[in-house]
Amino acid sequence: MTTIISPLATPYQFEEFVNDGEERWNSRNGTEITTVVIHHMAMTNYDGVPEVWREREASAHYGIGPDGEIRAYVGEEKRAWHAGKANSYSIGIENCNTSTAPDWKVSDKTVDSLVKLIKDINKRYGRKMRIVGHQCAEGNSPSSTECPGPSLIPRLSEIIKRVNGE
């Protein structure tokens, strides 16, 4: 199977993840991708994300750093473990924070790259993806997680408008 990543992204420890096993991603079994799920990393160490996933059964397709750098962690053809029931039909994008709790701020450069990445995903798949915050992904509720955090939640409508050219 061909590995699919955005041309905007740099593979980051990609081969390690590809060879690491099924506990952090597996086959979509042909399920169509219809949704992008936005997350915040809940950390300010952009380079530390892969280490967290080595300790937990979790992963995401992409991560965006505070300077706007986009990294690919798991190919889009795989089901990453980032949003419960939505995993099979979604692409997960983690956004690095520039501050810790309680604000969990995300830089404007990160948001700009997030918009560019989702536009690229839409273009490559030939349709507008549904864009949701983690807490609104299927099987989750605002009371089950605060992700994508207090910095990104109020910006979701702005992000959607920018992606859709409104």
Descriptive account of the structure:
- The chain has a single domain (10-163), classed as Peptidoglycan recognition protein-like (Lysozyme-like, 3-Layer(aba) Sandwich).
- The model has no long low-confidence stretch (mean pLDDT 87).
- It has 166 residues and is α/β, with parallel strands linked by helices.
- A hairpin with a 5-residue loop joins β4 and β5 (70-72).
- The strands form 2 sheets. The chain has a 6-stranded mixed sheet, with helices on one face. The chain has a two-stranded antiparallel ribbon with strand order 2-6.
- The chain has helices spanning 14-20, 49-55, 108-125, 149-152, 156-163; strands spanning 10-11, 25-27, 35-40, 62-64, 70-72, 78-80, 90-95, 130-133.
- α3 (108-125) crosses α5 (156-163).
Give descriptors for this structure.
166 residues; alpha/beta; Lysozyme-like; 6-stranded mixed beta sheet
SSE topology:
Blueprint: E1 10-11, H1 14-20, E2 25-27, E3 35-40, H2 49-55, E4 62-64, E5 70-72, E6 78-80, E7 90-95, H3 108-125, E8 130-133, H4 149-152, H5 156-163
Parallel strand pairs: 1-5, 3-7, 3-8, 4-7
Antiparallel strand pairs: 2-6, 4-5
- Whole-number radius of gyration? 14 Å
| Residue fraction in strands | 15-25%
Q: Tell me, what's the shape? A: globular
Averaged pLDDT: 87
Task: Quickly name the level 1 CATH class.
Answer: Alpha Beta
Structural class: alpha/beta
- The arrangement of helices and strands along the chain is EHEEHEEEEHEHH
Oligomer: single chain
Short characterization:
The protein has 166 residues and is of the alpha/beta class. The chain contains five helices and eight strands, in the order βαββαββββαβαα. Its EC number is 3.5.1.28.
